[in-house]
Design brief:
By secondary structure, the protein is mainly alpha-helical. The protein has helices at 2-6, 13-34, 36-42, 50-75, 79-88, 92-101, 107-134. The protein has one domain (11-134). Helix content is 80%, strand content 0%.
């Protein structure tokens, strides 16, 4: 199993898209974890209290965990997980719209996250469908 992590013998193109998206999420979560105040300013959250900074670090850990899950599942060519991401990722954009509507996150951040997730979902979907047509 560990050898497959270092160099996957057979990785589908759709699994590769999930792995790449996992790296992106892992990096974003890591930035939140390591630099919460900088990331808060970047996302237009304003100055953070000590407790808010801790909560943002906690969110960074959660996001990094999801990134690691996507990364490892894509790396190990877990086709069931690749398919599952095609089902769950379309819900991100509507959830971002709801969070923005209730004032929980700024509009530009909600739009950025919705676009990022939607584009990666579309990339995985098109790749997955192309692989299924060839089979």
């Amino acid at each position: 199993m560990f050898r497959r992590l270092l160099s996957p013998p057979e990785q589908s193109r759709a699994a590769k898209t999930v792995e790449i998206y996992g790296w992106i999420i892992f990096a974003e979560g890591g930035l939140l974890l390591l630099f919460p105040d900088f990331m808060a300013r970047l996302m237009h959250f304003g100055p953070l209290t000590l407790q808010a900074s801790g909560f943002l670090r906690l969110i960074g850990m959660l996001v990094s965990g999801f990134g690691m899950l996507y990364l490892l599942s894509g790396r190990l060519n877990a086709e069931g997980f690749v398919f599952a991401t095609l089902i769950d990722r379309p819900f991100v954009a509507p959830n971002m719209a709801i969070l923005w509507l209730f004032g929980a996150i700024p509009g530009p951040l909600a739009l950025l996250l919705a676009i990022e997730d939607s584009l990666s979902w579309l990339w995985t979907l098109l790749t997955w469908r192309a692989e299924r047509r060839r089979s």
